[in-house]
Amino acid sequence: MEVIQLLISGISQGCVYGLIALGFVLIYKATEMVNFAQGDMMMIGAFVAVTFINILEWPFVWGLLATIGVMAVFGILLERLLLRPMIGEPHFAVLMLTIGLGFILRAVAGAIWGNEPRVLHAPYVGEVWRVGGVIIGADNVAIVLGTLFLCGLLFLFFRFTRLGIAMQAASQNQLAAYYVGIPVKRIFSLVWALSAVIAACAGVLTAPVSLIDPLMGFVGIKAFAAAIVGGFGSLPGAILGGLLVGIVEQFAGLYLPPGFSEVSAYVLLLVMLMVRPAGLFATMQQKKV
Amino acid sequence: MRFVRKTDYAQDVDLFQHNGQRFWYGLLALVVLLAPLALDRFYLGELALVYIYAIAGIGLMLLVGYTGQVSLGHAAFLAIGAYTHAYLLNHGWPLPLALVAATGLTAVVGGIVAIPALRMTGIYLAVATLAFAVIVEQVLTHWVSVTGGFRGMAVPKAEFLVDLSGAGAFYYLCLGSLVVSLLAALNWLRSPTGRALVAVRDSETSAQSMGIHLAYTKGLAFAISAAFTGLAGGLFAHKITYLAPDGFTLIMSIQLLLMVVVGGLGSMHGVIFGAIFIGLLPQGIAIFRDSVPPTIAQIPGLEPGIFGLILVLFLIYEPLGIYGRWCKIRLFFEEFPLYRKATYKKQKSYLRTERLR
């Protein structure tokens, strides 16, 4: 029973990691930029949701939709103002830029919404079901269902829409995509918007489980580990890596001495990098000279 | 504009290119040597801190600026140096020996970290070093018998033959360490191994085809970089006098990176400029806090926010850092009426993909 209970909380936590990792991977795949501020974008998304749902008292669904809209605009603005001047700069510079961006977002969130943790009023909070001795919280179920729904949507988007296929083309070869007439820069903006929306969804889904405060974005670093475990650049890999990290973390918290729970994600990462440096789903190839 | 006419091969590897440089650096040496006569305790302490940052910066610059390997975990090396130094001093080792041992141990750890890191590039490396830093932080928190855990660990007074804990004496200790580190780093960079670092940074493929052993070079760079940072850590322990794990977090790593980026990647001048910048920034922020209304000054996380903002602005508008800006200004005056704006213009470039390594 204990094992199943841990598995459930591990899966729901892992889904959150997976969603943030999905945002990382989307941006990396399309633009080859590493967005270290993904966790902080999740934090901003959660706070925007709090503004609509708690403070303005909109119904949950409308609040969620408004949050998605605001975050999409936010993602586009970020790309236009900060990331576009960096096109063609080394990866390292972009990495540093997004780290700086994360600090700025944290300070801005602290200035606007204050530092005390908040709880999002979601309609399903507090409901629990007991199935044969195992307690399943509605918020955990919501996380898993939400993740599944988003993944399905993304799959359909990348498989069947013109825009999705253009995004894949831009991610495979920027220059070639230019040549066949894809507006690569506009695609980059939209990828950032999409990634911000996914981050916002992750924020809203995780809000009932963990409290919302400006520092919640640090989860992003663990999600980053998850993305690499899954093989940076693979969408299913990101979700799988997230699940793996989430589950390992829960079990490490119970069965290993204190302190191991926090580092388990990183130990997993280091082991993965040593054993299989390209991750579970490899997308990198050695260049033939 | 000055043209140096070289008449001897030794001039190519000379530390100073011409007598003008000898004069100015000599003047600078005189100023820093005589600084304790003119400054009071507080400013001497701040200046010593700048020197300590600069030593750590030399380490990070060798790795990031010259070898092109990103590390988000240098706070861990700083912590290892600081804790080792304090632990050994507490067990009765003399100060120079403890400092050397701290440097050596950090170098060994750096070398060990490099082994898995050699197989990675770019972001993978950055994240691996980040993971290493988080693990070290947890070890510091939980290995209570050595590190004191959350309660922390007191650092004994700096003394060797004479008392070194006074502001002036400690200033000279830090200054001496900085000069030695700087000369060591510059000499190393002029050696074949040092040149190999730059070759690895610019193109791994071409470096390899010229017979440079990539793994060995990168590993060495990691170890040496860690050694400098460990030395800085030992001095830093004396500066903060009480060690606790929360002094060596990700923020610290990023502050160190901020230092080399803002100073100017790929030059030792950049390290010094960056260290001065980082050392003076808290004072600047304190003044800023006093001058704005309290509603803004009370924002939590304001300081890291300003750090982040400065980093972003530098990366977008002055990627060459303070040293790059200084070079531009100097060139402007050297070529006075003929300065061309396009000299430093950013070339339009396409990203070199990392997916094909």
Q: Would you mind describing this structure in some detail?
A:
With 289 residues, chain A is mainly α. Chain A has one domain. Chain A has helices at residues 2-31, 38-55, 60-83, 91-113, 138-160, 162-172, 174-179, 184-206, 219-229, 235-255, 260-275; strands spanning 128-131, 134-137. In chain A, helix 1 crosses helix 9 (219-229). Chain B is mainly α and 357 residues long. Chain B has helices at residues 19-38, 41-66, 74-90, 95-117, 122-142, 144-147, 167-190, 192-202, 204-209, 214-240, 250-263, 268-291, 294-297, 302-317, 321-334, and strands at residues 153-154, 159-160, 162-163, 242-243. Chain B is globular and about 65 Å long. The two termini of chain B are 42 Å apart. Classes of the chains: A mainly alpha (289), B mainly alpha (357). The interface between A and B is large, with 54 and 51 residues.
Looking at this protein, list some descriptive labels.
heterodimer, A: 289 residues, mainly alpha, two-stranded antiparallel ribbon, 11 helices, globular, B: 357 residues, ABC transporter involved in vitamin B12 uptake, BtuC, two-stranded antiparallel sheet, 15 helices, 4 strands, 70% helix
